[in-house]
Write a structure and sequence with these properties.
This protein has two helices and four strands; from the N terminus they run ααββββ. By secondary structure, it is an alpha+beta fold.
């Protein structure tokens, strides 16, 4: 019985740590990908805003742009339909 309790506590801790590390946004739109603007436009939007873009990818229903500004590493999450900045994470 004690072993089952220990396993349960370990699983709960692992889940909590995983949730704490998941800091990105993944739900920027419900529109189908056919309505999304090209990913390169999200990078261009970030560059226009003064960010030095490193790379980008699709994360859930967002464009995630990895960039640097003022010496800080950032993750920028853009709505792929209207390219609105939805969330920013400083790394």
């Amino acid at each position: 019985m004690r072993m089952i309790r220990l396993v349960g506590v370990a699983l709960a801790m692992t889940t909590s740590i995983g949730l704490a590390l998941a800091d990105g946004k993944k739900d920027c739109t419900t529109e189908p990908q056919a309505k999304w603007k090209p990913q390169a436009e999200a990078e261009a939007t970030a560059k226009t805003a003064g960010y030095e873009v490193r790379r980008s990818k699709i994360e859930g229903s967002c464009y995630e742009v990895y960039a640097v500004k003022d010496g800080k590493n950032l993750e920028l999450f853009y709505n792929p339909v209207d390219l609105k900045l939805m969330h920013t994470v400083t790394k």
